[in-house]
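Ticket #4471: complex job returned nothing on first submit. Input attached below:
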Amino acid sequence: MITDTRRLMALHRTLAARRMPAARRVITWLVQLALAAGLGFLLLGGPLKWTLSEGDHAASLQSLWFWLGLGMLVVSGLQVQSHVLRGQDREVLGLHPVDPAAVVLAGLGELWRRQLGWLVLSAAALWPVMNAVGVGPFLGGLVLGAGAGAVGLAGSALCMFGAVGWAEDPKLAGLWDAIRGQTPRQQAAIIYSVAPTTLLAGWLVSAASTGVANGAFLGVALLFVAAGICLVFVPKVARRAWYEATMVLQDIAARYASVEELPESEPVYLEGIARFLPDAVHRWTLLELRRGWRGRRGFISAGWLLVAFAVWQAWTLKGSMVAGGGAVALLAFALGSVIVHNAATEHDWWRTVGRQSAGRELGRIAAVVLWSLPPVVVWAALAGVRRGTGVAGQALTVGLGSAIVAAMVAVAVSRQRAGRWAVFLSLAALVTAGLTAGLSRWGWM
Amino acid sequence: MSELVSVQGLSRSFGPVKAVQDVSFALPPGQFVGLIGHNGAGKSTTLKMLMGMLRPSSGRVLVGGVDVHAQPKEARALMGVVPEEPPLYEELSALEFLQFVAELRGASNVEEVLELTGLESDARRLIREYSQGMRRKTALAAAMLGKPKLLLLDEAINGLDPPSAALWKKALRQRVDEGTTVLLSTHVVETVEAVADRVLMMAHGKLVADLSAGGLSKGQLEELFLERLAESQAEGRE
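Support reply: We reran it on our side without changes. The output follows.
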């Protein structure tokens, strides 16, 4: 198993190297580092340092490390789902007699390697915090992030492959039916199976972050111990469920395909509002809403969590609302990325029919605005209750304005044949940083 | 044991749609079998169930006595498969991909399958630069690594240029002569007529004919196919 795992990890390195040449990888990495550091300075420099120095220092630091750890946990679950369970290795190697444990462990190894890169970026983004809290608690927080990532990967793999078996267990059918909505039962089992990992590991992250904030770093070791325990069981579960996963995923795809015509009569989230748009825009908005919500519902919902920070800040009256505005702008670009993804993966037929149609592009913009609405409205409403209607109006303007700008950038970038993600992410960083700086300078909010 | 593959009462429904209904057949070692049917006849669904990629609603598939769905790894060691849209690592060359798969399968016949599929001259190019036909060749070459006892090919020859198709047929025939069983699904009757020893016909999810291809004259298979299709449609209307 170890030899096969090593061989597969070497394969992943080769594939990654060929997807992007070394020079371009280094440049991209440096640009990301610079952007992270710049954004950290703009978004976190003022408000966070203020919170850490003026507020309850330990509570603020605990909150910061908790959100970092929770973010790593959630991202780990999404990564395991898209790269290990549904990824290319299973599609290609699932046709051959391989050791599933080796494939899954190699996949987790590759994801762990990527997460370490993100932690370096996080360190760059959070560097203003280091000045406020000192090197020890800062490094402790980053190690906590690494531990949360490790337990997130191993725990999610354990639960997700376990869920492949639970998905078809008749004893659990009632449970899945109760929570699945329109989603096929197996799909619901796989998606929601990560909840126990997130809850349990989230509790560990919470405890560890309290420890780090108070100078007790040993609690972080708990995360690595939990990850190790999960890893012990991963090979066994993978051997039982990896091949079966292909059958279950095919079944899910087949169930969606068998009702391919039905979605026309089944509304997706926010579809009711889109019906009030003019006819020329309405049908394109529906198309984007349906493709985006059905294909990337998890991503959109996770994106809304970005605004949790803004909502918390608005409600607790901690600091100005500028950083919250930055979070809302980031959310708008995260949602805009769904449009870029839709455009990149759409069927040729749509591309031909919809090319150069103003209605189509307005439909895309409308979809991003509609997805942005729920968190922006909550944020503005809370700001209104706590800070007055003037601030609420400004928050609403910032939220909807960001959504429109992000959607326009997404539409423009979607027309590019190559390099669309690099351009989109760079523009996202620039617009967010510019907006935050502007709000700060003009004294808005 | 005289049969290599045993398909017993295989059915598969997708919601209200019965894609495959009670299909049963057995395949002995060393036979070239063509599976033909109109679009939507249930060929790909049947092949996917044989490949262990889709679970049947009822029935089972045994390959060499191994239940394909209960013992997937063991079953895959006995078979090589080429799905309708074969997944490949695009950033590897065909040679690298085949060497990698050969290591995992414990096979040593990379050079041989490259020659059989006519990929030698392009073997060092990255797969992402390949045409659709060359991708299929790569997938077939991978399926033939380790000389599995059964080859399952879903629409694998469709879209190949005539010289490549001829080379494929020759390569597959060679394998059959060595004792491998090949099950090739296609809607192109001429392909089956040219190479198969036996023909399975599907229409509207059912197996409507199982016949030896040996005694058929040119064009007869197509006539027979259309005849059975019309009968099946008439049954469906009743």
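The CA atoms of residues 70 and 203 of chain A lie 10 Å apart. Closing as resolved unless it happens again.
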